[in-house]
Design brief:
The protein is of the alpha+beta class. It contains 3 helices and 6 strands. The chain has helices spanning 15-22, 62-65, 69-82; strands spanning 2-9, 36-38, 41-43, 47-49, 55-61, 87-92. It has a 6-stranded antiparallel beta sheet. A hairpin with a 2-residue loop joins β2 (36-38) and β3.
């Protein structure tokens, strides 16, 4: 079982915006072996899918990343807010 959170913006979210935010992730929210871009998105402390228009999808396994899910989502949300987005979080626990 896993969890997921959608970040829905008032405007299109770009891969470059997400990449810039991921480069600033603190160690606590990062993957132990380093954050990396994959064809489907980014492998970090949680999985970050490539943005689809105005939506960015975060997901993970309860046993591994549940304890950082909300903090991670807020970090990404704040980073997008700094780039002029208005973000709504949609939790799917």
């Amino acid at each position: 079982m896993g969890w997921s959170i959608d970040l829905v913006s008032n405007k299109e979210i770009t891969e470059n915006e997400v990449q810039e935010i991921i480069c600033k992730l603190p160690e606590k929210l990062s993957f132990a072996l380093g954050n990396s871009k994959q064809p489907w998105g980014w492998s970090t402390g949680v999985d970050v899918a490539n943005p689809e228009g105005k939506k960015l999808w975060l997901s993970g396994a309860y046993g591994y990343s549940e304890n950082i899910a909300e903090e991670f989502a807020l970090f990404i949300k704040n980073g997008l807010n700094e780039k002029g987005h208005e973000i709504e979080l949609k939790y799917r626990w």
